[in-house]
Amino acid sequence: MTARIREFLRKRADDGPCLVVDLDVVRENYLAFAKALPDTKVFYAVKANPAPEVLALLAGLGSSFDTASVAEVEMVLAAGAKPPLSEESQDALNDLSRIAASDLAYDDPDTDEEALEEVTEFVRVAVLLLHSDCVLAPRHRRSLN
Question: What is the pTM of this model?
């Protein structure tokens, strides 16, 4: 336990259990891990601690993220994760973003509304994943069969 955490706990009113995280320790651990494995990409499992402060710190250090849901991808993006994208990738992202943001409407009365909703959701997830340096856990991926 760091001196900083000890001091926090000493001054804290006993309002029940709490989680205390020293961001300096998170930073030191991330940097040590990344240094020990210089030819790898470090992925932080968001479900371990999705606190915005932790995600923002790790995003700022260049971490990648292992996500288990679209909501976690959105949290990582909100925390500032911005991977470098090639010009072609950025163009594709812009195209997908326009599609996802548009109100898709068809004049065909036989259009399957449920299928259209699935395609719209698929495009939204694709945009999120293209725009982030995240992986979505296999059990949370959906197929549009």
Answer: 0.62
